[in-house]
Amino acid sequence: MLKILYLHGLNSKLHADRQKVLEQYSTQIAAPRLDYENDLEILNKFLDQNRKYDVIIGSSAGGLLGFFLANQWQIPALLFNPALSFAQHIPNLPDTQNQTALMQICIGWQDEVVLAQESFNFILEKFSKPSKIHINIRKDMAHPLPIDWFKQEVASFFIKLSR
User: CA 109 to CA 26: how far, in whole Å?
Assistant: First the structure.
């Protein structure tokens, strides 16, 4: 059974409707409550642990955290509107490697919190070699992620993962 690490966004949590979707793929879902504003060592606390998850799913600030964790642990990740451009505000980020595990990134083109172009620029800057990153653009999506699109992206991710 896959162990999923779900990383919520800023001042958020794993909502029941999303948990229900994830439970279709695993009953082992860790969704710790994280304080991104007051705990600048969150990334290092996770990296200090032995890797105990098989998949990361993250949204916004959790997508940023998930990006670096997945890269360091070389495990698959599904990231929704990851706040990649905010990485400049986090001290001592690890260097990124070429992502060898699947990373699917869903970006809302209408997002005014995490700008799509800034996310693209970040990815291009961090990965000079071809990688296993799949980017899905949702032209009508802003920062909030409708549950129907969450279901679709999660299903697509797990289909790719099973190949």
Answer: 30
Task: Let me know the angle formed at the C-alpha of 11 by 71 and 61, rounded to the nearest 5 degrees.
Answer: 20
Interatomic CA distance for residues 24 and 101, integer angstroms: 22
89, 128, 138 from 135: Cα distances, Å: 24, 16, 10
**82, exposed or middle or buried, with CB in 10 Å at 0-12, 13-18, 19+?**
buried
Q: What is the pLDDT along the chain (163 residues), one digit of tens a residue?
A: 899 999 999 999 999 999 999 999 999 999 999 998 888 788 888 888 877 899 999 999 999 999 999 999 999 999 999 998 888 777 677 777 677 889 999 999 888 988 888 888 888 777 766 578 888 888 999 998 999 999 999 999 999 999 8
pTM of the complete model: 0.92
d(CA 83, CA 64): 5
Torsion over CA: 90, 96, 101, 105 (sign):
positive
Q: From CA 103, how far away is CA 161, in angstroms rounded?
A: 10
